[in-house]
Amino acid sequence: MIRILAPLFMTAHLIAGLPSTQEALALAFPGAEITRKEHWLTESQAQKVKELAGTGLSGLWQVAYEARKEGKLIGVAFLDTHKVRTLQETAMVAVSPDGHIQRVEVIAFREPQDYMAKEAWIRQFNGKKLDAQLTLKGSIRPLSGSTLTANALTDAARRALALHLLLYQGIQ
């Protein structure tokens, strides 16, 4: 019995129909050339991101996926892996050059599927910028029965927007 259940648990994200990283990037930036760029933040930069986002980063090494069309930057995506309840979720947050969320895609979700946010709920992040209203008590609707998921995705969005401000909009 365990042999049968373990593979199902390990591939829960496949059953849920979640996109791969490459698929999520293609959804966010159709037809764009994607370049992976690694950033090593200083302690002071990480502190600045924490101040801007209201939540800390998982480490100093951050990866951005830059999307370009005809050489022009059309957006940047960040992957954010975080704990929801006891297990992890990975979300891709795509940010426009002017600092607004273009798209959020969950690409891995290890918690029970009942706690996973629906696409319609996730779409409310589109067009949002980093401000005091980007919270569950502000412009983000709560997610009934999945408050921890809602908090985790909102924090991921805030971290990605803060990273974008620091790395791509020159906020120091």
User: In what range is the share of β-strand residues?
Assistant: 25-35%
Mean pLDDT: 91
Provide a count of the helices: 6
Sheet with the most strands: spatial strand order: 1-2-3-4-5
Number of structural domains: 1
* Overall form: globular
Major sheet characteristics: 5 strands, antiparallel
CA radius of gyration is 16 Å
Secondary-structure element series: HHHEHEEEEHH
Low-confidence stretches: 1-15
Number of strands: 5
| Cα end-to-end separation | 55 Å
Task: Estimate the helix proportion, in percent.
Answer: 25-40%
- How would you classify the helix and strand content by structural class? alpha+beta
Task: State the main characteristics.
172 residues, alpha+beta, five-stranded antiparallel beta sheet, 6 helices, 5 strands, 27% strand, globular, disordered N terminus
Please, could you describe this protein's structure?
The structure is a single chain. The chain has 172 residues and is an alpha+beta fold. The protein has helices at residues 2-10, 12-15, 21-28, 43-53, 119-122, 147-168; strands at residues 33-40, 61-69, 72-83, 88-95, 101-109. It has a five-stranded antiparallel β-sheet, with helices on both faces. Strand 2 (61-69) and strand 3 form a beta hairpin. It is globular and about 45 Å long. The termini are far apart. Residues 1-15 have low confidence and may be disordered.
